[in-house]
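Tutorial handout. Part one gives the primary structure; part two gives the three-dimensional structure as tokens.
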Amino acid sequence: MASSIAVLVLAVLAFSARWAWWRGKKPGLCVLCYHKIGVPPAGSKLKDLWVSPERFRAHVKYLLDHGYTTLFFSDLKKAFDSGAELPAKSVLITFDDGYENNYTLAWPILKELGAKGNIFVVYNTIAKANLWHNPASEPWVNMATLAQLKEMQESGVMEYGSHTMNHPHLSALKLEDAAWEMEESKRQLEAAFGSEMCAFAYPYGDGAYAPAIRARALAAGYTFDFSFLQGKTLWPWDRAGGPIDRLFIRRGDNNLDLALHLSRGASRL
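Part two.
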């Protein structure tokens, strides 16, 4: 009997270490952050950035089955500008960088299920590769072409935001160079897609909480700036108080992880 209780206690402790079900529920806007959809290539040391198509489909289906409303950046802007309330269970599905697999694998799933997605695009790597990665740790993969990005936009399923021109660590640059990365990417993306880029995400999350860099992001004309810090941000949003945080979705995150992200702001320690 004692051994059975010990096994049960160990199982509960192991479960509680893996899934943060014990955290209190947190209010705020849910912004999911994905990167690559597919199978990590051989040699990848950043496997957590990859989510399988099957798992991504399960996540999107979970959202829709549980009454979540997926939003575009433009939907969020309309609510922010007008002061209107968001739907009770609102979520933004975002992708960083703009990979070809967002087009070949993520977009068809969103389209099939009737959900909206948003991609933060690195302008100078459109139709190229993820050149900011060291191929020794993360093999280069193709980025979406401009034609593919436009096709997704025209389908009414995907919208875009800026992720700079070249995906640098903004804090490693001179302030004027960091400002150029943010300003020029907005200008180039708006010219390419014929629509406002109201949203910006800091590469690596670098600069999101650096006052001088953040000031230049807002001065560039973005309504929203998004960090890479794990969490939810209270809505209505205090724009002056800091950027909007996100919920990083890892390769191993299942639907329980997703539920905890949405309710607790994190699924694990």
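Part three, for discussion. The longest strand covers residues 90-97. The two ends are 31 Å apart (CA to CA).
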